[in-house]
Amino acid sequence: MQQTAQVPILKHPWVRWSALLAVLAVALAIAIAGGRQISFNIWLGAVATGLAFSLVALGVYITFRVLDFPDLTIDGSMPLGAALSATLIVAGVNAYVTLPVAFIGGALAGIATALIATRLKIHSLLASILVTTGLISVNLRIMGRSNIPLLNVDTIFTPFADPFRAWLTGIGGEQLARLSNNILAILLFGVIVFAVKFTLDWFMRTEIGLAVRATGDNRQMVRALGVNSDRMIVLGLAVSNGLVALAGAFIAQYQGFADVNMGLGLIIAGLAAVILGETFFRPDHFAAASTAAIFGMIIYRVAIAAALVISIPLPNGENFTIDAQDVKLVTALLVLGSLALAQWQKNRNRRTRRPA
């Protein structure tokens, strides 16, 4: 006799979304109780940042889930994209022209990692670490210094900023106009990110895209069918790191500066977004998975914003707060907890399905 398999309660969508909303509500309540002023602009900024970083989540999904190729190159390719974009903008190049340049720069970094791993037969993690280390010097050479401010220069937002602010002022007055920068960023990033997403979805349905996906599933089978799996890995890493570098260009123009250290620990944020997206959306095909990765990063950035406004009164009269320097630790613990929960659920399902 076989036991009936039980569906874990976390598999119900309403439970997952209710849990997320409950956590955010508790965070807001704690922040208000602690006396912190919470601006709506904080949440708009978190969504805008999440959209910009969502290309990182797409890149991580391609390497870790599609290709099954652990790649740390993104820690270097993101500041590479930011460095290329910022340097060209300061030199007077149109901000939109810098976006494909950033993508190509990141793609070349991904190709370097792939060639080291496939041609020299060096482990993927070590290959990506070598390239990331080398990119530190490359980025410093491009920038000429560790930080480039983007002050009084035209960015991708400049052509729309004044007309959009005037339009918002006419609708809701000065109070709504104060939110114009983040609202414009959300709209602009949203259009570009989803254009990239739909293009990527289309590509993954082509013959080459299917070969890339098959390479991650079973390289031996792909080789038996006459497909060069090494070339598919090179292509996949080029696309992945190109997207990450494009995100770097977005972030540099949104935040107003490019910094050589802005990619530090980025792989953990990307993994967190992918895991959150898979947890809340349960995608069953690539198009759904790419959407889940995008919204996973938005959820992650909103969660970080919520964590930063928490202020818990302590018995000694002081308040416990999570500061910006604690974000990396919180993210690492979040990823660790998510992976541990996923493994626990897998073991539980295995025991449940086992014959009595």
In short:
The chain is mainly alpha-helical. Helices cover 75% and strands 3% of the residues.
Characterization of this structure:
With 356 residues, this protein is mainly alpha-helical. Helices cover 75% and strands 3% of the residues. It has a domain of 224 residues. The strands form 2 sheets. A two-stranded antiparallel ribbon has the order 1-2. β3 and β4 form a beta hairpin. The radius of gyration is 22 Å and the shape is globular. The N terminus is likely disordered.
Strand content: under 5%
Largest sheet: 2 strands, antiparallel
By DSSP (H or I, 4+ residues per run), the number of helices equals 13
* Content-based structural category: mainly alpha
Determine the N-to-C terminus distance.
6 Å
Q: How do the helices and strands follow one another from N- to C-terminus?
A: HHHHHEHHHHHEHHEEH
As laid out across the biggest beta sheet, the strand order is 1-2
Q: Per the principal axes of the C-alpha atoms, what is the gross shape? A: globular
Contiguous runs where pLDDT drops below 50 for at least 5 residues = 1-10, 30-37
The total beta strand count reads 4
Mean pLDDT: 85
Question: Whole-number radius of gyration?
Answer: 22 Å
Oligomeric grouping of the chains: single chain
Q: What level of helicity do the residues show?
A: over 70%
